[in-house]
Design goal:
The complex is a heterodimer of chains A (381) and B (536). By secondary structure, chain A is an all-alpha fold. Chain A has 15 helices and no strands. Chain A folds into two domains: 80 residues, no CATH class; 274 residues, no CATH class. In chain A, 64% of the residues lie in helices and 0% in strands. Chain B has two domains: 301 residues, FAD/NAD(P)-binding domain, CATH 3.50.50; 155 residues, Flavocytochrome C3, Chain A, domain 1, CATH 3.90.700. In chain B, the strands form four sheets. In chain B, strands 1, 2, 5, 6, 7, 8, 17 and 18 form an eight-stranded mixed β-sheet that branches. In chain B, strands 9, 11, 12, 13, 14 and 15 form a six-stranded mixed β-sheet that branches. Chain B has a two-stranded antiparallel sheet with strand order 3-4. About 12% of the residues of chain B have low confidence. In chain B, a hairpin with a 5-residue loop joins strand 17 and strand 18. With 536 residues, chain B is an alpha/beta fold. Classes of the chains: A mainly alpha (381), B alpha/beta (536). At the A-B interface, helix 1, helix 4, helix 5 and helix 12 of A face helix 1 and helix 9 of B.
């Protein structure tokens, strides 16, 4: 039998070939939801690949366990393939497409431009209004003497609406692209399943013993815990903002609030979580550079970095809010929040929405399955 | 003519995933043979002159075969235990000996990315258990496992050794638990064997990766690309192991040697001695490094053989698979769903003889005995999607003569075979492969004794089949202490064997899924333990 060489294979062909090898092998099915989900399919459309890609949490357990990983001639590298497919999906499903392409491919520049731009714009606006940038201010409403309340609400409210529109549009397109339609499964049970998957970030557990990223020889739950710190820190910060809005608009108590007040306490706990988590996750990215020779992707670094910047500037602002540095720090903090908001629909941030959607589809699919293995008398080794 | 599909030879490489290019190098540098080896030599190794080892600066981190030579030479005092091989049995033996405080060197012939030989392709261990847990339902008692073993081939070669493998299998699993092996719960791909076999999470490569980490922590000196060229027994107090390492030959001494380097299935000229030219058509499912060189040397030294020279574990794999290392993905599970014909277009065996997992391992030998060592599994459209997704697409045609032409078979014979088969089938009930349905052909030779359904839903699909060898059974004879026996029947005092190289002491013909791991783990532990005693 002669062997033929093809110089290249398209990305989709490569992904389909690799997933078919997984389907014929099935050794990895204990690691995560990707493998049981691919076993439900015999062919893989582009939408299937994108769906599986968003189920993948990139823990690398399957790569390390794969006897077909490069340099084997089968060249199976599911984490890398799904990472590429996932990133392509983020851009493909985002609107407007040109902006998405531009911002996704220049993550560092877009974060830097948005932060600096927001900072300079705030400074210019304040100078134009003749307010001193260094004069110490305190007392109720002092933040709004730096940037007026209406300006903040307009800038961030519009940005938030934009984010919600773009991300939900992307998720709807992603959801509709699925090929296996959920059957008569209960949506309530599926959502409970998703919560059970997301709360512990189950699929960063490497199937139980921990995630072998970054160190293949030492699987650990470190990455899962750091990611949880970011997730819950972010949610606490979000809760802090909501509580502050209630304080201000319903209870008519103007910020800044005392350290022992609910919004500030939530903010402090959340901020510490985000800073610890982001710093740790960045550290793991760079450890992987050493241990796995994987250069950190700029999208990963800039997303984690801007999230960390928001948290760090927020904490510094809290500490120094009664000093003359307050206006500058406030500008810087708000500029970083602005950059986070502006780049959010075109950054790694959207992984959260896609993962939840993929996990929900997975739960619905699994629930629609007949008794597991009824016709599958698989033989192994 | 069907060919190997084009896509399978050109791994895709994305620009955004430099890891694809770098992985081999990564692995090399990260786990480098050099760093850990040098460190361990200084801390745990048996260096004759500790000051030399202490004062010698660690070699430059640039990896290179030549750099390892002085390291191995530095150990001029005998190692307590040298383990030849790097798969499951070797690792278990090395860990066992190192945990008993012995200095251990493990010589793996393969490079780092191919380490662990056929263990890379394993998935489960067959073991006795008297109660169910969350990984294994029901119970599986020693008598039942022994009876299962007796029912394949001609039964156990040496029942007393088979009893040891069976009797100590539960203990082996407990040992694996103690050493942090992760298991997985029965899922779709594992259900058929869930009661009898325990599945390690992620399969054999993950297991071996874990064992390498455990071995390294236990102080075992791991050397890759170290091929054992010779064993010398002139001196009564140690064995000299000649190692080909980076183009040089290094002589090291060991108080005991555990040989656990697999069968000779990757050595096609050797297989040809017993199978003639047929051997050239075999596909080797596992590592290309199991060339049997050390086994040959042991036989030269007067070791007794055990096991049938033609005995092997071989299954039906897709004929389009790579010659070596295709592993589990190349197997085909569609055989009981249709018929299997040979090059002449005729059926030659009962496709429904037993529950598929039990029958699975007999097809390699059946195809090996057919002309041209090729066969074709044919199913009709009603069976599509019923079996595990095959690696390669089927060859399909709307009519049987067209299918025959695509397979280069005689159209008339194939059509006659199928027509005759259909005429002798009257079953139409839905197929359930999990139990024997006793829906058999009537008056047909050979019969199909279960799941006999006519092939009459075009289009028809065919998969070309070759014998896929997993491992050979003929190896060295051992005693209950895992000592290798001479032809006179007395043991070599310092030579031990574990794993595939002694599997012929248990297996004659045929195979039970997961038993290779049982034999390797049980005898790996015995060999490691006994070798440490000798090293005292």
């Amino acid at each position: 039998m002669r062997r033929h060489k093809l110089p290249t294979e398209t990305f989709l062909e490569s992904a389909q070939r690799q997933l078919n090898i997984c389907n014929a092998c099935r050794y990895c099915e204990g690691y995560c939801a990707v493998f049981p989900a691919l076993e439900l399919r015999s062919t893989f459309t582009e939408a299937d690949v994108t769906y599986l890609a968003n189920l993948c949490h990139d823990c690398r357990a399957c790569l390390d366990a794969c006897m077909y990983a490069p340099p084997h001639e089968f060249g199976v590298d599911i984490p890398a393939t799904l990472r590429t497919a996932r990133d392509a999906g983020y851009v493909r499903y985002a609107w407007p497409h040109r902006l998405a392409t531009l911002l996704w491919h220049h993550p560092r520049a877009s974060v830097a431009v948005a932060t600096l731009g927001g900072f300079v714009a705030a400074l210019v606006a304040e100078s134009a209004n003749g307010r001193s940038l260094v004069a110490g201010r305190s007392g109720p409403g002092s933040f709004y003497t730096v940037i007026p309340w209406l300006g903040m609400v307009l800038a961030f409210g519009l940005a938030a609406l934009f984010i919600i529109a773009v991300v939900s549009g992307a998720i709807v397109t992603f959801w509709r692209s699925g090929t296996v339609r959920p059957g008569k499964a209960s949506w309530g049970a599926a959502w409970r399943g998703v919560i059970a998957d997301v709360v512990p970030l189950r699929y960063l557990g490497g199937g139980g013993p921990g995630c072998p990223y970054p160190d293949p020889d030492r699987p650990s739950h470190g990455r899962r815990l750091l990611h949880q710190a970011v997730l819950y820190g972010f949610l606490l910060d979000f809760a802090s903002t909501c509580v502050a809005a209630i304080y201000q608009d319903i209870l008519h108590r103007m910020p800044p609030y005392p350290v022992t007040s609910l919004p500030v306490l939530l903010g402090i706990i959340g901020g510490v979580g985000v800073i610890a988590g982001c710093t740790g996750l960045l550290h793991l990215r760079y450890a992987a550079w050493r241990l796995r020779h994987e250069r950190p992707a700029p999208q990963d670094v800039s997303f984690v970095a801007v999230l960390n910047l928001v948290a760090i500037t927020g904490m510094i602002l809290l500490i120094l809010r009664a000093t003359p540095a307050m206006p500058i720090l406030l500008d810087l903090h708000l500029a970083s929040v602005f950059a986070l908001f502006l780049t959010l629909p075109y950054s790694r941030f959207v992984h959260a929405a896609y993962r939840v959607a993929a996990l929900l589809r997975n739960r619905l699919e699994e629930a629609a399955q007949p008794q597991l293995g009824a016709e599958d008398e698989g033989v192994a080794a | 003519m069907w060919r190997r599909p084009l896509l399978y030879t050109a791994p895709y490489r994305t620009n955004s995933c430099p890891t694809l290019h770098l992985r081999a190098q990564t692995v090399w540098e990260v786990h480098g043979i050099i760093g850990p080896f040098a460190r361990q030599l200084r801390t745990a190794g048996p260096a004759a002159d500790p000051t030399v080892a202490e004062d010698t600066p660690a070699p430059a981190p640039a990896p290179g075969d030549a750099a390892r030579v002085p390291l191995l030479q530095a150990a001029s005092a005998p190692w307590d235990v040298v383990v030849v091989g790097g798969g499951n049995a070797a690792l278990v033996a090395a860990i066992t000996a190192a945990e008993r405080g012995r200095s251990v060197a493990l010589l793996e012939a393969a490079p780092r990315h191919l380490r662990a030989g056929n263990t890379r392709h394993t998935r489960n261990i067959r073991c006795v258990h008297t109660e169910s847990d969350r990984f294994m339902p029901g119970t599986y008692l020693a008598e039942e496992l022994f009876a299962d073993l007796a029912s394949v081939g001609r039964g156990a070669t040496r029942p007393e050794l088979a009893r040891i493998a069976v009797g100590r299998s539960a203990e082996a699993v407990a040992w694996m638990d103690q050493h942090g092996v992760s298991w997985q719960r029965p899922l779709r791909g594992t259900l058929g064997l869930a009661r009898t076999n325990r599945f390690f999470l992620g399969g054999g490569t993950a297991l071996a990766n874990h064992y390498y980490t455990v071995a390294q922590r236990a102080g075992v000196n791991l050397v890759y690309e170290a091929r054992v060229a010779d064993l010398e027994l002139e001196d009564a107090s140690f064995v000299t192991v000649v190692v080909a390492l980076g183009g040089e030959e290094v002589r090291i001494r060991a108080r005991a040697v555990v040989v656990a380097c697999g069968g000779f299935e990757a050595n096609l000229p050797w297989l040809r001695r017993y199978w003639g030219a047929a051997a050239d058509q075999y596909i080797v499912r596992g590592t290309p490094h199991n060339d049997g060189a050390v086994l040959a040397r042991l036989l030269d030294l007067g070791a007794a053989t055990c096991g049938d020279a033609r005995g092997f574990h071989a299954i039906a794999v897709d004929a389009r698979s790579p010659k070596f290392d295709g592993g589990i993905a190349t197997r085909l599970d569609c055989l009981p769903f249709g018929i299997v014909v040979n090059r002449e277009g005729r059926r030659f065996s009962d496709e429904g003889a037993d529950i598929w997992p039990k029958r699975y391992a007999s097809w390699g030998g059946l195809i090996a005995r057919q002309p041209g060592q090729i066969a074709y599994a044919i199913v009709d459209a009603s069976m599509t999607g019923r079996f595990i997704q095959p690696l390669y697409p089927p060859i399909t045609a709307g009519t049987l003569p067209d299918l025959a032409r695509a397979l280069e078979l005689d159209p008339d014979t194939l059509e006659r075979t199928v027509t005759e088969f259909n005429a002798h089938c009257d079953g139409r009930s839905p197929l359930d492969l999990s139990q024997l349905d006793h829906v058999a052909t009537s008056d047909l030779d050979p019969p199909k004794t279960n799941w006999a359904r006519p092939l009459d839903h075009p289009p028809y699909s065919a998969f070309p089949l070759r014998p896929g060898i997993t491992f050979t059974f003929m190896g060295v004879a051992i005693n209950e202490r895992a000592q290798i026996l001479t032809q006179a029947g007395s043991p070599f005092a310092r030579l031990f064997a574990a794993g595939e190289i002694m599997a012929g002491n248990v297996l004659t013909d045929g195979y039970l899924a997961g038993l290779g791991l049982t034999i390797g783990t049980v005898f790996g532990r015995i060999a490691g333990h006994e070798a440490s005693q000798v090293a005292d």
